[in-house]
Design goal:
The complex is a heterodimer of chains A (323) and B (249).
Chain A lengths: L1 E4 L2 E2 L2 E2 L1 H17 L3 E7 L15 E6 L8 H15 L3 E5 L2 H14 L2 E6 L1 E5 L2 E8 L4 E7 L4 E5 L14 E4 L9 E8 L12 E5 L9 H11 L2 E4 L1 H5 L21 E5 L5 H7 L4 E6 L12 E4 L2 H15 L5
Chain B lengths: L1 E6 L1 E3 L21 E3 L1 H17 L2 E8 L4 H10 L3 E6 L6 H12 L6 E5 L10 H9 L2 E11 L3 E8 L2 E8 L2 E5 L11 H9 L2 E5 L7 E7 L8 E2 L4 H14 L5
Parallel strand pairs in B: 1-4, 1-6, 4-5, 5-11, 6-10, 7-10
Antiparallel strand pairs in B: 2-3, 7-8, 8-9
Helix pairs in contact in B: 2-5, 3-4
Classes of the chains: A alpha/beta (323), B alpha/beta (249).
Amino acid sequence: MILVFCELKDGQIRKPSAEALSEGRRLADASGKKLGALFAGASCAGSAEAAKYGADVILTAEAPTLAFYSSDAFAQLVADAVKAKGATVLLAAATAMGKDVTPRAAARLGAGYASDVTALSMVDGKLQAVRPVYAGKAFATTTFTSAVQVATTRPNVFPAAEKAGAGAAESLPAPTGDFKSVVKEILAKATGKVDLTEANVIVSGGRGMKNGDNFKILEDLADALGGVVGASRAAVDAEWGLPHSMQVGQTGKVVSPTLYIACGISGAIQHIAGMSGSKFIVAINKDPEAPIFKLASYGIVGDLFEVVPELTKAAKAMGIGKG
Amino acid sequence: MKILVALKQVPDTETKIKVAADGRSLDPADVKWITGPYDEYALEEALRLKEGKGAEVVALSVGGDSAKEVLRNALALGADSAVLLKGDGQGDALAVAHMVAGWAKDKGFDLILCGNKGIGGDNAAMGPMLAELLGVAQANVIVKLEVGDGTFRAEREIEGGSEIVEGALPAVITAQKGLNEPRYASLKGIMAAKKKTIEELDAVAAPAVAVVSALALPPERPAGRRLEGEPAAQAQALLQALKDEAKVF
């Protein structure tokens, strides 16, 4: 069996989990295996949706003690499920939770682990993964010698394709005993916007923005395009009051949106490493020699303080980002 | 309190990656090596705990002779002692976690700090794997840490915000940018570090189970085009192209 650890949010499967499930279905078909979807929480209402993405079996562990995430308890639960079902491949989305629970579960299983993979295949019955290393400056093909193979899928890379599965429900016992660590509180930002790693459109600013207040024009453009705002390391380190969670690059987030608009970003190798996986890159910079133009699908040499507001105006006029 | 800081030697972030002749590893020519940027936050946090509460700080790295530079730097910054576990550096995250756990398991560490990821393999896995092998709590991608009497409270970065994790010591905590602002080594520290010895030990045998079989550079991006004209015309042309050619909208 190929087992996919899935996350629910507001009673729905999170998009990165749906992507992992779809990829799991494809791998299961290619290797003649069953696909299992695994959920854990105080309630797993909504887990039945996994059948839509091809799950043959839907495993749920429901208990009040699982209301808040615990690294060790969830890792134990996931590893136990792998053993109980005889699964040989364990997948999860490379989300904050996925990247926390799967390496711990892999260690428990003595399994090889590959994170943030961008391509998967089954070769001689075993998983093979392609994944960015050095923050995307290179790609490594990873093969496994362990009986169980574990990988997390990078959000926004694998399509969440619908394919009906049997979706037979099965419940699993929740781990008991003392949990070594537990999440006590979630401090969500009030924006309600998606995370950079999951965004389809990113408008990013660099040193050329001159100060933090000027990011307002990027916010306006991002809003008009239905996107979110990122920043280069130069901008984050400039003490303009931008949080590190906005940083795109080797020491920040590695993103792969459909559209990445780089404003006033020269294109340091550190930054390029974090965004070169974007499908389309737009560069707006007043320096025609800026390295970012070498990557750009579309380049605009000009003053971003003139171009960006024009883009916002035109996007609104065209009704982009409304549907 | 006894704190272990695990440090990794990694290529500088400005390094242009070249593939070695074997087709599966990094060509080490022209690579400048540094302490992992996230490991620096881990070390700084350990030093602050030492100054605030009193603690013994042990720096550890897995690798060859060159990794001693990372340890020498840690000593210069204020680590009390340093240990090099000699390994071939080809291990996967699980192998390295086994090596660190094999050495650390009976040393009585209350806290193990490391970066949330190296900036090479980018697996972000050694920390949680180490926590599992030691059977202790973990908290990853931490931007704030409070250590109490046998407990910890940490703020961890997640999508669109953060969460508070509480747990029992011992624990493995992996640092994120924002946790603190790392200090620079003083001349006095650098001189003192030269006199300290770095303990060198053979790491326990731990074969890799995830193996890099090929390393390749990303495909070249297709040539793009420049949009000319006044800002308003450029803006219009861009959105039209994104809509019609790229079909982004």
